[in-house]
Design brief:
heterotrimer; A alpha/beta; B alpha+beta; C alpha/beta; A: alpha/beta; Pectate Lyase C-like; B: alpha+beta; five-stranded antiparallel β-sheet; 11 helices
Chain lengths: ~250, ~375, ~500
Amino acid sequence: MEIDARGVYYKQLNEQIREAVGRGETRIVLRNVNGQRYIGGGLRGDDVTVEVNGVPGNDLAAFMDGPTVHVMNNAQDGCANTMNAGRLFVHGDAGDVVGYGMRGGSVHVKGHVGYRVGIHMKAYKTQSPVIVAGGTAGDFFGEYLAGGTLVLLGMERDGKPLVGDYCGTGIHGGQIYLRGAYDPYHVSTEHIAVAEADAGEMKAIEKDLEAFAEAFGFTLGEILSEPFTVLRPKSHRPFGDLYVNRP
Amino acid sequence: MRHRWDWSKEISGCGLAGLISRRGRKVSGEVPIRAIANLHDRGNGLGGGFAGYGIYPDYADHYALHTMYYSDQAQDLTEDLLRGHFSIAHSEFIPTRPTEGIGDAPNLWRYFATPRSTRSETEGEADTVMKTVMRVNDEIEGAYIFSSGKNMGAFKAVGFAEDIGRFYRLEEYEGYIWTAHGRFPTNTQAWWGGAHPFCLLDYSVVHNGEISSYGINRRYLEQFDYKCTLQTDTEVMVYLLDLLIRRHGLSIEMACEVLAPPFWKTIDRPDMDPEEAELLEALRITYAPATVNGPFAILFGHSRGLVGFNDRIKLRPMVAAEKDDMLFISSEEAAIHIMCESPDRVWTPQAGHPVIGWLDESVTS
Amino acid sequence: MRLATKSTVPGEFVQVVHHDRCIKCKRCVMGCGFNALEFTDRVMPGENPCVACHFCTDHCPQQCIQIHERPYAQAGHDVWSPAMQKRIVRQAESGGVLLSAMGNDRPWTVLWDNLLLDACQVTNPSIDPLREPMELRTYLGRKPERIEVETGPDGKPKLKTKIAPQLRISTPIIFAGMSLGSISLSAQKSLAMAAKKIGTLWNTGEGGLHEDLQDYADCAIVQCASGRFGVHEGYLRNSAAVEIKIGQGAKPGIGGHLPGRKVSSDIAGTRMIPIGSDALSPAPHHDIYSIEDLRQLIYALKEATEYEKPVGVKIAAVHNVGAIASGIVRAGADYVYLDGFRGGTGAAPTVIRDNVGIPVEIALAAVDERLRKDGIRHEASIICAGSIRSSADVAKAIALGADAVAIGTAALITLGCHVCQQCHTGNCSWGITSQRPELTRRLDPSVRAEMAANLLEGWTEELKEILGALGVNAVESLRGSRDRLRGVNLTKESLDVLGVKHAGE
């Protein structure tokens, strides 16, 4: 089914989406979206797909638990905030703070992502979130990363560095994949172990790369044409030595 | 997209939108009104405003003094002061219309005026205007000059921004630069003078965020005779820009390096050009009290263009877009699509690095 | 006329030895610099009273010594306390001037403890200092009022303004001036090594620079005081900065007197005076009887160092400190070092130490405000000292307007000091303020330098936490930001002078 979102306030729009899912709709197409917040917020249903045409507002797919969302344009800040399960595909760029505290599911962005992407994603048992971004990322990529996987491809760089400064600062779990050349100045090795990805590590993200290629019209070959670097925490307790008990 | 019933529950911060036509093509005030309406939920109905440039072609050589009066006595005292120092070509009520959601307006007047003489040899016209603005705002109770540039004006009030635009009949104005602001005030009581933009001479600033370094910024400015009277942190931003650019002669780019300086880590980079490092170090240590710290995104309008600018770790959002000679900047991309259906390019500016749209020289000369 | 050579005033402390655990190793007896323990068939309190320096307790392998206050019951009287009576008796016996060391020990209100810091909640974000940049780098020295930029031949902007020499420190904490003589060479070396490691400054005090510390000259502030001890052209030129010492918080208006018994060959050589002779510092500089004379000396030092070193002036915080500091800055000083009335000393008349001067919190606020009103705040940095005890004190001092703080007593505590206040006796068991080789060789600079450096590192981390909570990521955004402080239990007058609102306002 289709919903024309032009001039509709976010509350009414999201009510309509939830009602449709409640009725058993599995494919919902939104037209003329422009800035409405919380689309897909807290939405459930593993078989539900939402297609967003236009630029959705902040906190897209926040707390989402199962559905698949395709944004056919750019997405704003705060996508996949604390998302639990499901898939988000952004066919343009995404803004700042993608996947904050994400617990599971996947985000694929065709283009660039903003600042503080993948902050404090975490993994537990079978839940392990993944973000794949096709372009470049701003500063603080993977800050506080506690689990899960970030993949930054840099297929198009538009003259920008692959990743901004303070990449992986405070990382204490999970892994960050960087494809191709990056500026080591942006990756402090104080707490981060840097190594070229081995076959096993590449195998671990193969499905995610395939999904990216399929969704956005790339071939796996061109994605794999450059070597990948993997950043991992040196310790799960990077600040263990910082504190002493007061006498 | 206006829904007044639930504003008090939504918390998000302020919204910004702005545009410039580099070639000086005039755009109706309707455009920024609609853009800021899209960012409705970033404000809470306790303040908003607009600045337009190129809106007073008939009085382009006069300082347009937009003034709010809370008493007749304040008006008398202010007009006495103005008559003493200025030739006033024209004065009038600022046209408004009764608008639902905008109440308790002070008396709003504008004067198109030129300083009659400066007070000393070394003091320029602009200094006289600045001192007059400071004096009125500081010393005359119930009088505030909230806009004082040439061929530009600020329009602000308590209410939702889009209602404020209607109240001031901005669709009747045309400008080549517009900025708009919807406010979610936090630290100060809502009052008309505290709404954005904040202006001095031809500088106007709309701001999203809170300036955590306000205390030292203000004390620094007081040494240069700026009086912070409007009870809002953003005020320091416009005075800092005036100090750095007009009085200290720094370029806009340099002024931005002062407000959001590069980290020492960056200045120390071995591959940094030594002369550039020397300059950046000197700027940082000299203007340390002018560093604006904490989250901010601002739109800074001036007679030569429009600047969009973020704090150095990007704690507030900002998106920019271009189409032909137009530059658009906003807190959210959605507002840009209101101003421009299909931009050629949309991008997220780098933290601490200004996006500058310059007017062609043919427009400014 | 002096009566008995040995005072009848009882000591304040007594050692209690648990003989059942004692293994009679005698470390305590040999370790005591004050001869306050002796060994007959077992360890006993000795000839001299215990001063509670705790060298014995900290070095007893059996932990079988405790120091107690000596019971001395008297009829209770709040005015004529035992301490007051003892002082009178001591003077009645001697006719002398009572001497003390360290800082003012009277229970004056410490205003730092009535000031509370702000933090961010919702309206602006706090910043995580462990994962995001947090900048404490500080430059001390004269700044221009404005920067002029010119365009180079390559079209790029270039600095046109000439910047005066600056002291670049990695954290806004330096070591206070403590002379060789007042403290030992090992103690000075420990601080010098710590300063170099951290990227901050130590201060020679007024006793010159010992040749063993030449490697640490480039991070040393060298003092030029009224005694001009060890001041020569090389001393001035090899330094990080030169400091004219006018006064000291513990003894404003008072000169110095290093007793001849502390003038060992090391000290004699460094100060360029004979071994065993008293080293007397005049109360004033006899070339400075007025502010224009200060200017003359400042520029004499700048000429001698070819304008390559900042020249600062250290003063005690006294009543009219705002105007004095303004004059100092106008006279050309690149920094003003304010030492509050709780500041330490190697020796000072007790009456001066305990009753002269004003709190540094007040002085700092007054000076910062005065320099701003005069439009000359940028012309000099302000260093605040005089009982800075913690990183919280540092943060509060910076918020009041200090560019940096200096620590003396806190630094000595990292070297082993237990604040027994006997520095002037030269008996320091820890080897900090004594000059007797058998005592000073106990102080191992390689170990103590690490401990002094650790303190600076710990405080620096804590400062970053404070800045992060305040939502700023550079120390300059706290500096002078008095709106980030609130006062509790302070009078309106205090709040007005501090320029701080009361909590809740």
